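Assemble and predict.
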Amino acid sequence: MADISSLFKTFTPSLSSIKADLLRANRECSQRKLFHSSKWAAELLYSIEAPVDYKQILTVQERPDFVEEYDKFCLASSFFDLKEYDRAAFFVQDCKNKKAYFLHMYGRYLADEKRKLDNAPDSIGPPDKLENEHFKTLKTELAKKYAIKELDGFCIYLYGVVLKKLDLLKEAIEVFVDAVNSEPLHWGAWLELVTLIKDKESLLALSLPNHWMKHFFLGHIYLELQLNEEGLKIYQHLMDKGFVKSSYIVSQVAMAYNNMREVDMAVNAFTELTEMDPYRLENMDYFSNTLYIKEMRADLAHLAHRCCDIDKYREETCVVIGNYYSLRQQHEKAVLYFQRALKLNPQYLSAWTLMGHEFMELKNTTAAIQAYRQAIEINIRDYRAWYGLGQTYEILKMPFYCLYYYRQAQKLRPNDSRMAMALGESYEKLERLQEAKKCFWKAHVVGDMEGMALIKLAKLHERLNEEDQAASAYTEYINEANRMGTFSAEDQSQAYKYLANYHLLRNNLDDAYAAAQKCTEFPERREEAKGILKDIQNRRARSEGAYPHPVRMDDSLGSICPDPLNISTRTPSVCLSPVNLKFDIGDD
Amino acid sequence: MAGVDSQTELLRFGPVGKTGPTHKEQVTPHKISLLVLIYEYCELKKKQNQPFIFGQSNTLDPEERISESEKRDFMTLILKLLQSPDLPLKELLNQTQNILKPKIFDEFVDRLKEFYEEDVLPLMDFFQELHRMLTEPITPEMPVISSSSLLGLFFRRMILVFDSLSFSQVTILYNQFKHYYEEVNGPAQIDESENFGGSLMDSITKETERLTCSALGRESSHLGGTKSESGGYFSHKQAEYFISRQGFLLQHNEKEAMSPKELQTQISNMLQSNPALAEAHFLSYMNNLRVKEYCTAVHNLFHCFDRNTNFTDVNLANKTVEEDVSRRYASLNLAGLHFRFGHKEEALAALQEAIRMAQETNDHVCLQHALSWLHRIEDAGNTRTASLIARSVDKSEEMSLPNITSLSVQALAKHNAFFTARPSSVIEYMLKSDILNCQHSQPHFMCVSYAQKAALWHMYGKRESSSMCSQLVLNLDTSEGGIYHNGESVCLALCNIARIFADEGNYVLALEVINNAKQRFPPQTQHAHLWMTYEQEIMFDRSLLSQKDELASQALTGLQALDEDEYKLRSGIFKKEKGDVSTALSTLTRLKEHVTTNSQKFSPEFLCRVMLALADLYIQTGNHISATSQILECITKSEEHHLEYLHSLAAVYLAFVQLLMRLPEKGLSLLDQHMVTVLSHGSCLDRARTLYCYARCTVADGNRLSATDRKSSLLQAINTMTTVIELFKKLDAHMRVKDATYYLARLYHELGYTAERNKCAYEFKQLDSQFPTHSQGTVLRL
C-alpha cells in the first residue's frame, strides 16, 4: 500500500505533544458533555507513557466571554449531568459564548432524542412526522449559523449529527469533514464520518486534516470497510510508535483478526484485551463469537459469567450468554438471550442473524426466515443473513429457490469461498454443472476455507468427462491436502485412483504407478489399486523392448514425492473468465 | 412446546424499537375527523327522526333537512374515505366541502377547532359521547347508528382502540392532531380563523408567506426525500382494502388502477407503517411485472414469501402445513416470474421444485397449477405437451378448478388447431371452455376464449366470423363491481378489428380503433405492445401500397422493436418492392428456414405467408419454376392445416404463373374454383388482384375463340377491370391503379373504342405525372 507508507512519513509529533493534545481534548469534550469522545481520549492518553507537564496544561486561560457567563454554564452543566436536558438548555439559551451555545443546542437535541425514545413504546398510529420536526428546527438554526461561519468545531459536529438524523447523508459528510478539520481532536466527529463512508473511493476523495488523529480514523474505517490488512498495518505501526498499551488499539486489532477469521490470533488479542481492561464489555460479543467458533466452552462460560457480573443489562452481555447457550446446544435459552439483546437495542443487527441461526437449530424454519429477513431489513448488506436464508431454503429442499439468496450473499462477499461453495453446491443439485464448476473454481481461487472446492471441482470434471481438467484438479487437490495436512480417506483415495487410471490410459506409467501405489494405502481401494499396479507391470513388461532405459522401481510406501504428479498446477480456466478473479488478494 | 408461542410473540416487535404488538387499527387524526363527520351527520339526522308530536310544528328548517340524494352522497363519500389511506386535513376539507350540507360542514369544522384549542379534554369527552350514542338509541326501533352496521363497527373499533390508549398515548395523539390541524390553519392563529370556511385559503397562503421555523422545517422535508405530505398513513385494515382493490384492478382493468409510479409510492408508504405486511410486497411485485422491471420484481417476490407467515395461528400442526403451502406457491410464483421474463430454463427449474414439494405432500391443487404452467413452459407443439394439456383438462375438471380447466381447454384447442385437427372439432372443443366460463362466470376467460376464436377464424380464413368474435369480446358484459375487464384479449380484439378495417382500405376507421386501444392501454402498460405492432403493420401496408417509401421504412424500424419475425417478412417484401431482389431473396429464404426449423413456435399461417412472399419474388424475377414449387408447397401446407383462404390465394398465384406461362385456360379453371373464397373473405387488395388476374386470363384465353366470343369476353374483362381500378383506388395503391388503367386502355384499344381508350390514356398520363414509376420490377406481379 503506497498511501499507507507515505502517510506515516507525516507522522511526526512526539508522544508527549500527543498526550498534551489528548488531555486538552478530554477536557473540552467533557465540558461539552461529549462523554464518549472524552472517554476515548482519556483511555488513549492513559496508555501513553510520556512525560507531560500537567500543571501547565491544566491551567488554561478560558476566554473572557466564557468566564462572564460561567454561572449559567455551571447550572446547565449540572442539569445536564442529571439528564434534565430541557432545563439545561433553557438556562443557557441566551448565552453568547460558544461552549454554552453548544450545550444549549446539544441539550435540546438530547431532550428530543430522549422524549422520542421514551415515547417509542407507546407509539400509536403512523410513524410520527413530528419526530423529525424537532430536528428540522434544530437544523434550520444551525444551518443559519453554519452559513455565516459562526459555529465552532463541536457545533459543526452537532449540525452534522442532525443532518444525519434527517437522512441528508451527503450534506452530513461534508459537514463532518468540516468538523474534523476545525476540531481534529474530537473523536466523535471522526466516528460519525466512519459510519457514513461506504467505500474506499469516497474515502480517498475526502479532504481530511493532516493530523495524527487521521491515522486512528483510517485504521478504524479500513476495518469497517473490511480492508482488514490495511487496518492492521496501521495499527501495527501505531503500536510501534508507542500506543502498545492502548486498549482501544488492542481491541481494534482483535476485531481485525476476527474479521479476517484468524481465530487464534483474535483469541489472543481478545485475551490480552481482557487482561488490560478486565471490566470492559465492548467487543466482548465478538470475543464470544470467536470463542464459539473455537468451541472453547470453558472460556466462554467464564466470559459469560464475568460479563453477567459486570452488567447484565448490556446487549453485549446478552449476546455472550446467548452464544454460550448456543454452544451448549440449549437453543431455546440462546434465543431468549438474543431477544433480550434486541430489546435493549433493536438495531443490534447481529443478534437478529444469530437468532436466525438458533431457530434453525430448533428446526423452526419459519421463525428463522423471519429473523433473517428482519436482519436484512435493518441492513441489506448483511451477508450472513442472506446466507442463512439460503441455507434455510436449502434445508427445505428448495435448491432453486435458495439460489437467489446465495447469489445475494456472494455478491456481498465476492471473496468468501463459503458463499461460492454454497452456490456451487446448489447448482450441482440442480444439475447445472457448468455454473457449479465456475463456482467451485471461484471458491478455490479466492482461498478455499473448507478445502472442499477442489475435490468437488475434480468430481464435476470427472462427471463431465473432461479428463485433463479432472486430472489436474485431483492433482492440485492432493498437493493442497498434503500441504495443509488435511486428510479425508474417501476423497484422497478417489483422487489417487482416478489419477492412476488417467495416467495409465495415457501410458505415463511412472505417474500411474506412483498414484496407484498411494492408492493402496487406503484399505477400501486397495484391491482396485492392486489391479492397476498389475496392469502397469504388464505394460512395462510388454514395452521393455521398446524402451531400452531401465524403469525405476520403488516399492517403499510414502517415498513418492508429489513432484511427478505436479504436471500443471492449475485447471485450465476454460470455464471461468479471468475478470472474476480480479479481487483475489486485494491491493497489496 | 411452550417456548414457541413466546418466541413468536417476541418476534413481533418491529425494527425501529416499537415494541407494542401491532394493532390492526389505530386512531389517527384523520380518523378523528371522520368520526366527527359521522357524528355531526347523525346529530342532524337525529333531529329529523324526532317523533311527530301533535300540535308542535315539526317543520325543519331547510338548512337541516337532508334529502335522499344528499344522504346517498354522504354515505358513498364516507365509504370511500374509510377505505382509502389517511388524508391531510386540507384534502379532506376539499373533498367534503361540496358534498356536505353547509350546516354539517360548519359543525364539523367548529368541533375540530374546539379540539385544537382546548387540549385533550374535549377529545376525550367526544369519545365518551360516541360511546353513549351507540348504546342509547333515541327510540328502541330506530337507533341513530346501528352497532352492527359498517359505520357502527368503525365507531366501535375506534372507541375500543381509544379506550386502550394510556394517557401519554392520548397526548401523543393530541399532538398529532394538533399538527394535522395546523397544516391547514397556521399555528395558534385562532383569531384569524374565526370565519373558518371563508378564510381557509387565505390562511394557507398566509402560512406559506410566514417563514416560521416549522414552515422552513417542512420545506426542508422535501430536501430529505421524506414525503410527509403526499403519502397518507395506512392502518392494517386500510392497507388490506387498498391491496385487494389495486390487485383486482391490475388484473381486471389495468387502466383503472393507479399508475405504476404512484402505486409504488403508495406501497412504500404502506410498508412504512406496516412493515410486516407481506401482501404489500406482492402488490409491488405485480406492479413491477407490469412495467417489466425484473430486479425489483424478484426482490419483492422473495420478500413477500419470506414474510408470508401467519403468526396468529396457534395450532402448531396446522401452521406447518400452511407454511409448506406457502413455500410451494412461492416456487410456483417464481416459475411464473421467470416465464414472464422469458427465462424458460429458470422457470422450469423453479417449477420442478414446486412440483416435487407438492408431490411430497399430495397437494393436488398445487400440482394442477403446476401442470398448467408446465404445458405453458414446455415447447409447444410436441405430443408430450399435448398429452400434458389433455391430462390437465381431465384432472382439473375432476377437482373442480374451473379456471385451470378453461385455460387448458383453450390451450389444447390451440394446439390442435396448429396440428391439423379439423376446424369443426377445434371450434367445438372451444365450446367446452365457453360452457365452463358461463357456468362459473369467469368474464376474463370468456374474453380470452372469444379472442382465441377470432384468431382461429382468422387463421382458417373466415374473415367475417373472426370479426364477429372480436366484436363479441368488446360487447361482453364483463363488469365486476362496475369495472369492465380490460385485458390482453380486449386489446387483441381491438387490433383485429382495426386490421379488418385497414384491409378494406378504411384507414381512417382503422386508426380510430387503434386510437381507442391507445387510450385503453396507455403506452407504459403491459399490453401496449400489441396495438403498437398493429399500428406499425397497418402503417407499413398502407405506405407500401401508396409507394411512400420513407414512411414504410419508418414503420419497419418501429416494427423491428416489437415483432422480429413480422419485421423480417415485411422487410423482405419491402426490399422486393424496391427492386432489391437479391437481398429480398436472402432475407426471405433465411426466414423460411428459420420458421421451418422452429415450426412449433410459429403458426402455420405465417409459414404460408412467407412462402407466398417468396413466390411473389420469383414471379417478379421471371423464375416461374421456383415460384411454382413455392406455391405448391404453400398449397400443401395450407390444405394440411385447413387454411382455406391461404389455399385459395396460393391458387390465384398459381393461376397467375400459368397465365405467364401461356396456359391461360388452366389458370381460368383454377380461378373459377377458388375465386369465390377470395372474393368473399379476402382483403381489398387480394380481391382486386384476383379479379385483375381473372381479367387477364379471360383476355388471354379469348385469343383462341371466335371473334364474337372474343369481343364479349373482352367486354367482360373491361367490366372486371373497372371494379379492379375502383378497389385499387380505395387502397391508394397508385402504381396498381396506373397499371390497371393502362391495361384497360389496351383493352379499349383492342376493341377499337377510341374515345374510352383516350380517356383511360389521359387518366394514365395524369397519374404518371403525379406518381412516376421508379422500379421496373413491378411490371410482372400479381
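Chain B touches chain A through 64 residues (CB under 8 Å).
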